[in-house]
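A student in our group prepared the protein record below, which I am reviewing. Here is the record exactly as it was handed to me.
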Amino acid sequence: MAPTLVAAAVGALLAAALLGAAFDRRAVAVVVAAAVLPSLDAAASLVVPGATNALLHAVWLPLLAGVLLYWDTTLRPGSSLRDRWGPRGVRVGWAALASFVVAGIGSALFAGEGAALLYPLEDARYVVRGRLVFSTQEGVVQTFLTLGAEGPGILPLERVGGAVADPVASWVNPDGRPGLDPGADREFRFVDGGWQLVVVAAAAATLAVRFRSRDRDAETDGGVSR
């Protein structure tokens, strides 16, 4: 599975981009927490076979959350979320959902061992692989979108194994199988490559700049920064 720190960094970048006027430390914490929430299924794998990249990486939870958010904030005459937290709460709710999907599930789907999107209805994990390049001889070459006689295709979801038959290792459960082995070698991966370090550094710098700008604006307006 993708390092949790990388998922948190992507969540932080989404928070900086999506929160708008709702941007503050508490809102950022909620959005980042949503980004790392799917990685908690690694702990569930100690009891549930194949839970890593499956239990909280399936589409059902964000789909249900999205339906409930839309119903509460758009279709209902009175929104419970808006009544309690105001427009800020609605903004944070949608940003957190986006963070859960893009940073939490996407980190496994696009740059990890894959996500069992239909678990438990289907055991297989899927991963999106592709490339986009410009060749002086072939022109633009991309393999993310299938273009053919039948029209545009979709992102190619490649099967990479079963959630149970081919378990995903994590620092909580190195062999990915039920049961706690006290003698197992556990490695908490912060980053696995240079590009991941760039993402983490960019997220830290972005938050630092946004918080500094927010605090400076609060001082100028005579407000109290959080």
